[in-house]
Write a structure and sequence with these properties.
Length: 359
């Protein structure tokens, strides 16, 4: 990097102007929200001069950073936020509600009253997620020292009651759908709990029949296969029950493709087409009410909880957080206290017996 930098000025998607430059520690910085190119250039000149002085060790007076509008903050946040493309799309869609109301307002002029009134006007079914997205962006503003506090956190944002998850009642129902479908997918996925984007790109080498383990190594999203899943937890090993292993071995592998569940021509399944043309008719053909392929993952969770697997262990198996597991499946634990009490009683009795024998 040259000792004297010029930085750059650019037009933002919101129609305002922004700048890019490197600070005194060689970290690239962005700043948006300038009404004119001249204003942006003026800020950039002052900032690069300040950086040059700091690198020389000169004393620089502390300046208040330019406060962006909400639309410019959103633009800046989305440009550096690391997430899957579908996650970014959802976040961007939710943030449009905030920018439509507060877009031209500098973020330090937001008030709790205005945010509260805005939240009350949001669609009831989406208000929680939309408000959560605004909180996320304003948290970034606090970290960037643009704001002293996140006022959106002072507005109540109760999470809506979750709808009852759809599950299959038994392995027999999974087998009935599998028979009509002509594929082991329902039994295998219902007993391993993989997400659709995880089982679609599975390859035969990911399955260890002798060890009873499935290795989740990649994910199929936005038409691309990526090596890692949606989080660090997604790269994991999942136990494969014998029935799931047998379901795979009942179907001869197609030697022209490494995929475990290939499409007719050997490539990756188009999940939308498969759901419409094959899955839905198979569920109907098995005499069951309609449910989505994701119900297979919910079914695994319900089976695991019924088998006595705790939420922490289940979160590791399913590649998600304990909080998410608790919110989605916590209602399936009506006898959790009784099970825990019985387990602790058995443990205490066992320890007492051991002490008595040692004595």
């Amino acid at each position: 990097m040259p000792s004297v930098q010029r930085g750059s000025v650019h037009k933002t998607p919101a129609g305002t102007w922004g700048v890019r430059y490197y600070d005194e520690t060689s970290i690239r910085r962005r700043q948006g929200g300038f009404a004119t190119r001249t204003e942006a250039l003026d800020f950039l000149a002052r900032k690069t001069d300040e950086v040059a002085k700091l690198r020389r060790g000169d004393v620089v007076a502390v300046r208040r950073r330019h406060i962006p509008t909400l639309v410019d903050l959103v633009d800046e946040y989305l440009s550096q936020h690391s997430a899957e493309a579908n996650t970014l799309r959802t976040l961007e869609e939710r943030l449009r509600y905030a920018t439509a109301t507060f877009g031209d307002l500098q973020i330090d002029r937001l008030t709790v009253t205005e945010i509260g009134s805005w939240r009350k006007r949001l669609p009831e079914g989406s208000a929680w997620g939309i408000t959560k997205a605004l909180r996320q962006v304003l948290h970034y503003a606090v970290r960037a020292k643009l704001l002293d506090e996140n006022l959106a956190c002072q507005v109540p944002n109760p999470e809506p009651k979750r709808r009852e998850v759809q599950v299959f009642a038994s392995v027999g129902e999974l087998a009935a759908v599998a028979e009509d479908l002509g594929s082991p997918i329902p039994v295998f996925v219902g007993l391993t709990g993989l997400r659709p984007e995880e089982w679609v790109p599975l390859e035969r080498r990911d399955v260890d029949h002798a060890g009873g383990v499935v290795h989740v190594r990649r994910v199929y999203t936005d038409g691309q296969v990526k090596t890692y899943g949606k989080s660090d937890r997604s790269l994991r090993a999942v136990p494969m029950p014998l029935r799931a292993s047998e379901s795979l071995q009942s179907v001869p592998p197609r030697i022209e493709t490494p995929l475990l569940f290939p499409a007719t021509r050997g490539g990756l399944l188009n999940l939308n087409t498969w759901r419409r043309r094959e899955w839905t008719p198979a569920v109907r053909g098995a005499g069951l009410q309609h449910r989505s392929p994701y119900a297979l993952r919910h079914t695994f969770a319900s089976f695991a909880i019924a088998a006595g697997i705790g939420l922490f262990e289940l979160s590791r198996l399913m590649g998600t957080s304990v909080e998410q597991i608790d919110r989605t499946y916590g209602h399936l634990l009506p006898d959790a206290l009784d099970r825990a009490r019985a387990a602790l009683d058995a443990f205490a009795v066992g320890r007492a017996v051991i002490r008595a024998e040692d004595g």
